[in-house]
Design goal:
Layout (H helix, E strand, L loop, with lengths): L2 H16 L6 E4 L4 E5 L4 E5 L5 E5 L8 E3 L5 E4 L3 E5 L5 E6 L2 E7 L5 E7 L2 E6 L5 E5 L4 E5 L5 E6 L15 E3 L5 E5 L4 E5 L5 E6 L4 E6 L5 E5 L7 E5 L5 E6 L11 E6 L5 E5 L12 E4 L5 E6 L7 E6 L14
Antiparallel strand pairs: 1-26, 2-3, 2-27, 3-4, 5-6, 6-7, 7-8, 9-10, 11-12, 12-13, 13-14, 15-16, 16-17, 17-18, 19-20, 20-21, 21-22, 23-24, 24-25, 25-26
Length: about 325
């Protein structure tokens, strides 16, 4: 494509996204998908035509969601985890750990408070329990359906507050290990079942989500810290074998890459979080081919503020059996 044609195409794409305030706008073949709106505190299911089929609120500060085989949605609620039916009945709920913290007053004195740990990760396990990744407390938990904690791995000493930026998404792997995105420290770590670090993958920009692929590689989405927003795949030794960053997608600006899903055809679907005063023309969702072309993009600024997690639903897969690479 020559420079003039590329400029015209880019301008048209940006114009389309700018009109997203009037309703959904998508380029390319759409999907049936579920999506979390972190800032709006809602969950949506959209049809391939871009129409809302189902929505749910409140889902405050939702950074992770799953559509389970029975049709229920499992998601985080900022400081908890909830599962709801399509009829919006709550069938499971967990509230984050309470922990004492010390806060400094303006005059330099210290006050003691009790906070509930923020939660950015959840996952339904094959045994019916739920994996929960707590941020402030630094705990990786396995929670039974009745809410009892049956396993706990500590990433921090008791009582230490990791803070809002400590970790983001996390997954329990098929081998029992844990894959954790350490946002503040710009690294993804793999822990064994006892919490020992067995692998580390540097992730400049601040990793938000991380996925272990069937071939053993790791797919990582990064935010807007030093190093910038990007999505990249590393092999078992940590070598980057695929990467997308600015300005490699004509007409699209990556802002803060959050949710991820690798599709069976090799394409990667990402949510482009536009918080931190980044609202404007970027699409909420982008599907990228292995050769870095945009297969699909979606924006709905009328109904959605910031997309943070996504699951494509038109590819048959069981989210509990590890068939959804998300």
């Amino acid at each position: 494509m020559n420079r003039l044609l590329m400029t015209v195409a880019t301008a048209g794409l940006l114009a389309a996204f700018a009109h997203g305030e009037d309703g959904p706008v998508q380029e390319g073949k759409g999907h049936l998908f579920a999506c979390a709106d972190y800032s709006g505190g809602k969950l949506f299911i959209y049809t391939p035509e871009g129409k809302i089929e189902w929505e749910y609120a409140p889902a405050p500060h939702c950074n992770d969601l799953w559509v389970l085989p029975n049709g229920n949605l499992l998601f985080v609620t900022g400081r908890g985890v909830r599962e709801v039916t399509r009829e919006k009945k709550v069938v499971f709920e967990y509230t984050g750990s309470k922990m004492p913290v010390e806060r400094k007053n303006k005059d330099g004195t210290v006050r003691k408070e009790e906070i509930t740990s923020e939660i950015f990760a959840c996952q339904r396990l094959p045994n019916g329990n739920t994996f929960v990744g707590e941020c402030n407390s630094g705990k990786l938990l396995e929670v039974a359906p009745d809410g009892k904690i049956v396993k706990e791995v500590k990433l921090l000493p008791d009582g230490k507050d990791g803070g809002h930026a400590f970790i983001r998404n996390a997954r329990r792997l098929e081998n029992g290990n844990f894959l954790v995105a350490y946002y503040r420290d710009s690294v993804v770590k793999e822990h064994d079942p006892d919490g020992k670090v067995v692998k580390e993958f540097p992730a400049p920009g601040g990793p938000h989500s991380c996925i272990r692929l069937p071939n053993g590689n790791t797919l990582i989405a990064c935010g807007d810290m030093k190093g910038g927003p990007r999505v990249f795949e590393v092999d078992k030794e940590g070598k980057t074998i695929w990467e997308v960053k600015n300005p490699e997608l004509p007409g699209i600006r990556l802002k803060f890459m959050t949710g991820l899903q690798r599709l069976p055809n090799g394409n990667t679907v990402v949510t482009n979080w536009v918080g931190h005063n980044n609202a404007g023309t970027p699409p909420h969702i982008i599907e990228i081919t292995p050769d870095k072309k945009v297969a699909w993009s979606f924006v709905d600024r009328k109904m959605m503020k910031t997309a943070s997690s996504i699951q494509i639903l038109d590819t048959p897969a069981d989210a509990i059996k590890g068939e959804v690479m998300h």
